[in-house]
Each structure stands twice: as structure tokens, then as C-alpha cells.
Amino acid sequence: MALEEYHEKRDFKATSEPEGKQKESKAKLKFVIQRHAATRLHYDFRLEMDGVLKSWAVPKGPSLNSSDKRLAMMVEDHPYEYRTFEGRIPEGNYGAGEVEIWDEGTYEPLEKVERKTDDLIMRAELHKQALKFILHGKKLKGEFRPVKIKNAAEENAWLLIKHKDRYAVTEEYNAEAHTSKNSKVTAYLKTKSIKKKSYHRKPEAL
Questions:
Q1: Taking 80 as the threshold, does the pLDDT of residue 198 lie above it?
Q2: What number of other Cβ atoms are within 10 A of residue 54's Cβ?
Q3: Which of 73, 23, 70, 16 minimizes the C-alpha distance to 48?
Q4: Closest CA to 136 of 195, 48, 56
Q5: How confident is the model at residue 26, as a pLDDT?
Q6: How confident is the model at residue 206, as a pLDDT?
Q7: The pLDDT value given to residue 24
Q8: Residue 167, burial from CB neighbour count under 10 angstroms (0-12, 13-18, 19+)
Q9: What is the rounded average pLDDT for all residues in the chain?
Q10: Nearest to 34 by CA among 162, 194, 184, 142
């Protein structure tokens, strides 16, 4: 079962994350990138495929600069319903912290194959551990290529790379600079920082 690991890690009586089920992927495949303040701030890159969301945690966030090779750690499959999830994962639960959608849209394989659906093409490329696709997002657009790192210390280590196309940039790209000023994740991080400073503050001398 594709979602077995996802279900094992979560107590759905304690978290509002969707339990979800595997579904049939339609013609236009969806993607979502969620900004996630857990133990550390990171970005969750998720691609609809084979009825679930294939997922990678990207510590530095995605980039539109083709010179960047962003580390992306593949994690357990998430249910399709997770692509709309935003909110607080309570303390004591797996991935505890705040989650918000940073970008979303549709995607398609870079190279089409006659008589094969986009989903089948992407599943075959995932099996080969080298994907090529086009993102149609609000922030991320154009060609991307996640590639598994060979002989890496951790088996789930990949690199997320932007292709050189009309959407690629040459200047430094920081995903944080493209985050909403009204971000609930940013507010959560500020509150967490204040609490931490308050906890470590030395008591005033009597």
C-alpha cells in the first residue's frame, strides 16, 4: 500500500492532516510546494503520481537559478488530499509545526510518449530515478529535473535542478524572498524564537 508509511507515522485523532486514500491520477497532474516549519524550516516538494503525492523535503527551498543544485530528500508518499493542507500540526506529532502552501499548479513530462499518459511517463522516469518535467505554477515555471544522487550516504538523497529556459534566472534565488508578508509560517517562527529567547534569558540578579 503506497500510503502505509504515511499512515503509520500519524495519529489522525491528534492531527488535522488528511488521512486520504490512493486515487487515480487524471490527465493534468498537480504539484504543490509547502513551506513547513518543523524541527527546521524546509520546503516540501510534492508531485501527483500513481494516485499519491511523491514527496521530497528541500531544506533550502527550490530555485529558478539553473546553477543551483538543491538537496532534496525523498520522503514517504502523501495522499492526494494533502496538496491543499495548511495549518498547525500539534506538538508531539510527526512533523509538528506550521504548514502553508508556497506554490502550486500543474505539471507535465518534458518528453511525451505516444499512447502513454503523463502519469505513466512520470512513473517510468521515477523508476529510472531521473525525472524531467515542466511546472506550471505561480512562482515556479518551466523545466525541472530531480536526479537521485548515486552512491550517496543516504539512499533517499536527490538533487533538484532547474533547466536553462526562458524562466531561469541568473541572479541568486532565495525562496524565502518570495514568501507572503502575511505568512503564518513566518509568524509561527517569530513566536517560537521569542519563546526560546525568553526561556534562555538569565534571571535578573536580586
A1: no
A2: 22
A3: 23
A4: 48
A5: 78
A6: 45
A7: 85
A8: middle
A9: 93
A10: 184
